[in-house]
Write a structure and sequence with these properties.
The chain is α/β, with parallel strands linked by helices. It has a single domain, classed as Rossmann fold (3-Layer(aba) Sandwich). Helix content is 33%, strand content 20%.
Length: 148
């Protein structure tokens, strides 16, 4: 029996493979060299996807987080174009926090898009990729535009 709520698909190998296959299929057409994640679900999926696609990985820590590291961001500063990988969009807070941390601590990087892999709370925001373009869902979440 799986002890989890909305993250249950991440703990079933077949479901996790399906999430990774879908993300890899969609993201293979996107020009990026790294993936930024936050939290345990982000690290689970992000680490596996980064390995599959030969991409770098940034981990943005939640504060305050008790760990052996003093860094807010863990990752290789040589990467330049990243996507945000997140489990769902409810308020958009995780996406905004990742973006702000990357702009602050990795200012030479560029956010090119986001991939949402478990959006079950709002059927109006489907799973999938959103590029960072004017009037895209991602730009709306980030507050880059007032248009939906």
């Amino acid at each position: 029996m799986i002890h989890s709520s909305y993250l249950a698909p991440l703990f079933t190998p077949k479901s996790l493979r399906h999430i990774l296959d879908d993300a890899q299929n969609i993201l293979s057409a996107v020009n990026f060299d790294s993936i930024a994640v936050r939290g345990s679900s982000g690290l689970l999926v992000g680490g596996a996807l980064a390995d599959r696609m030969n991409k770098g990985l940034f981990l943005i820590r939640k504060e305050p987080e008790h760990s052996h590291s003093g860094f807010i961001i863990e990752g290789d500063s040589d990467y330049r174009k990243y996507i945000i990988l997140d489990d769902l969009v409810c308020t958009g807070m995780t996406v905004r926090v990742i973006r702000t941390a990357m702009e602050t601590f990795m200012p030479l990087t560029e956010l090119v898009g986001a991939y949402i892999y478990l959006d079950r709370l709002d059927s109006r925001l489907p799973k999938g990729y959103s590029p960072r373009l004017p009037n895209s869902k991602l730009s709306y979440i980030l507050g880059d535009t007032n248009d939906a």
